[in-house]
Description:
This is Flavohemoprotein. By secondary structure, this protein is an alpha/beta fold.
Amino acid sequence: MLNQKTIEIIKSTVPVLEKHGETITTRFYQLMFGNHPELLNIFNHANQKQGRQQKALAGTVYAAAMYIDNLEAILPVVKQIAHKHRSLGIKPEHYPIVGKHLLLAIKDVLGDAATDEIIEAWAEAYNVIADAFIGVETEMYDEAARQQGGWDGLRHFIVDRKVVESDVITSFYLKPEDNYGIASFLPGQYISINLEIDGEEYTHIRQYSLSDAPGKDYYRISVKREAGTANPDGMVSNYLHDGVNEGDILKVSAPAGDFVLNTEKNTPVVLLSGGVGLTPMMSMLKTVVEMQPERKVTFIHAAANGNVHALREEVEELSRLDHVTSYIFYDSPTEEDRRNNRFDVEGYVTRDWLKDKIATRETDFYFCGPVPFMKAINRSLKDLGVKEERIHFEFFGPKGSLEV
């Protein structure tokens, strides 16, 4: 437990963290990777390059300082990050390294303003925060290993099938090389793929949502090819599309993630996706069909056009069921899309359309997609009076903000 003086010192740094947080976390990563380049085998290079990881960490440090006297208030955030850490292989021995370089970065950026008293208080606070993360993550590691079909670390999976779903999305069906059972998962969860790419000094780890319902003898991920190989995301997705074939072996983590469908509720559910954000939504949709045949579900997907729209046939087939309704939005439909009536609405999902078509009372909403799409959906739902506890969303990558 922290004493009152330490708590007061930490809280006094909140305005400084609000102003200089991203500068501190940017410097932190520079220092840490300079002294421990081996950690580049764990961290997402694309998120580093785009500044997303630095921004997310700054937000976490700020929240920890704000709630240093009530860390239970940020437990949901801790658990969300802990899921990521478990899937990446973050272990207790990494935390002292992080703590050391975070304190160095604070001192480096703030200079004389970072007094010995402030640094000592943050060192004490960091140990408390690290212990909270380590405790949660230890339970997650144990649970992942103990569950039926579970495992610790990485397990070898064979690419059993590789299916082109659209011009930009390809699905990979993964089966365990050892032929033993695989862990179940909650609809909306993801797995990590650990890749060693020729010519790359470090391994690349990417997390991909599982795009089928649990209970199968395989995992399915549906991967979007990102443009260009100069950026890390493009390098990894293009490698999967072009360099990984049926019969190849991939190293895979056990499923993780806290963005999951609540199957204990039987109230109506609306699943909204933009682009490749449909992957966790597909798992949720298929789970409702298989496990909750009486639950009303509406599936809304937005894409540029039919050329990039993946898994359309699966949704169409499920939409024949009485309790499933689906809508397709194209903002740039092709002439072929028009001739074949491939979509329901031209344009974007708007508040007025949702108000007209969707009964929001007692309905739960789940959405995922590009950040502008999610911001628009989030704002629309709030404008329509949907309560916060019935709005659920997932960022692909470090947590960001949906505030407009």
